[in-house]
Amino acid sequence: MAEFTGERLIPGEVDIDLLNEHMARYHFAVRLARAKRVLDAGCGAGYGSAELANVAESVFAIDIAPEAVEYARAHYPIPNLAFEQASCTALPYADGAFDLVVAFEVIEHLENWRDFLREVRRVLAPAGQLIVSTPNRLYYTESRGAEGANPFHVHEFDFDEFTRELKQFFPYVSMFLENHIEGVTFQPHEPGHTVEARVDSADPLPDESHFFLAVCAHRPQIGNPTFLYVPRVANVLRERERHIAKLVGELTTKDQWLAEFDREHQKLLLMFHEQKEGLERSNRWAEELNAAVGARGGRIDELQQELARDQENARQVVAAYNAKIAALEQEGREKTQWALDTETRLTAEIRNIADELAKAAATLEQTEKDMQDRAVWALRLEQEKRQLEDQLNMVRASRWVKLGRKVGLGPAL
Fold first, then answer.
1. What is the Cα–Cα distance from 144 to 146, expressed in whole angstroms?
2. Residue 74 CB contacts under 8 Å (≥ 6 apart), including other chains
3. Which of 42-56, 108-122, 151-165, 201-215 is the least confident region?
4. What does the CA dihedral 398, 401, 404, 405 come to, rounded to 10 degrees?
5. What is d(CA 54, CA 231) in angstroms, rounded to the nearest whole number?
6. Is 45 within 8 Å of 10 (Cβ atoms)?
7. Cα 283 from Cα 307, distance rounded (Å)
8. 167 Cβ contact partners less than 8 Å away, ≥ 6 residues apart
């Protein structure tokens, strides 16, 4: 389904001023299309091709976009009008097949726009004409302002470049300046056909023009009248009032959306404060835990430093919450998990230290037991020593030993 993209106009989906701007070009071309073989290159949704078909012998309309061709075929089933998908730089038609080629707001979209002009020159009959339009680069750039360059446009032209490039392919080029102007009409209530128009004379200013339109041919052209298009629906003030009413409605909708956004924002802030308080409680608990294990040695000091770094990171995360409202809940879960992980890690470290202390106590107990065994052994040796000394003294006191020593017998004690 075709839709309005900002470049392809769909009748009924745009304001009437924009539609009139596009329709004016086709009504300009209708004057030159009567009883002719016409090609509409870059036909878009086909609304202009249908206008040409009302007076032309035949109209072939092409567009590169299949959805545009499908839309045009569905909405404009006219016997002398045929829509085809094709490229403007490779026209699927014979030489000299058309008396008139129209290409409105197409050339600025083509990367190889010179190939397009070369193809148009090929399919035009010797007396044929090309009507081509494009926005004025100088005015268009200024009018877009902060929006920047149009992403759909490949190459935009100023007046001198557009004229110069067209004359490279067609010796006779009549340039027109298209402007969407404000006017005043006095239209009789009774139906009538006579129209009088006054266009104040003024020097044409190409640089200030909205669009350029050129009629190109291989032969001299007669007359270049000013063409004034007054559409059936052209009450500018009424259309502006409707447009203003539409904008007011959009602003009301936007205000409602902003109010809803503010309510959601307040909910998120409340969630943020709750999670912040929970994180602060976790931080205080971590600080108290650090104080409890402060005397556990160098390893505990390292854990405290690590915890201090984690706490500093947590404070930095809290400071960044105001810019990360959308991620508050996830951030809270991450910090809560961090606190749980820290608790698990510290608990494991304390258990390891307790295990080491238990091992040291067991070693000390074993050492005390060994000392007790050694003391018992020393006492037993001391007792044996005294017994031996007593026995030795008894031997020394024996009269037999003494008698032996007198006669030179017995052991030397």
1. 6
2. none
3. 201-215
4. -110
5. 17
6. yes
7. 10
8. 173
Q: pLDDT of 295-338, one tens digit each?
A: 566 676 777 787 788 778 767 876 776 777 777 778 778 888 88
Q: Is 14 helix (H, G, I), strand (E, B) or coil?
A: coil
Question: By C-alpha distance, which of 148, 141, 133, 150 is closest to 208?
Answer: 141
CA 169 to chain centre: 43
Q: Would you say 266 and 328 are in contact if contact means Cβ atoms under 8 Å apart? A: no
Q: Where are the CATH 3.40.50.150 domain residues in the chain?
A: 16-234
- Cα distance between residue 325 and residue 67, in whole Å: 41
Rounded distance, CA 125 to CA 225, Å? 24
- Report how far residue 292's alpha carbon sits from residue 350's, in angstroms, rounded to the nearest whole number: 11
Among 37, 227, 24, CA closest to 129: 37
Which residues have CB under 8 Å from 66's CB, separation 6+?
85
What would the two tokens of residue 163 be?
Answer: 């004229």
**CATH topology (fold) of 16-234:** Rossmann fold (3.40.50)
Whose tokens are 């878009």? That residue is 44
Task: Give the integer Cα–Cα distance in Å for 65 and 71.
Answer: 10
246-247-251-257 Cα dihedral, nearest 10 degrees = 60
Helix (H, G, I), strand (E, B) or coil at 179: coil
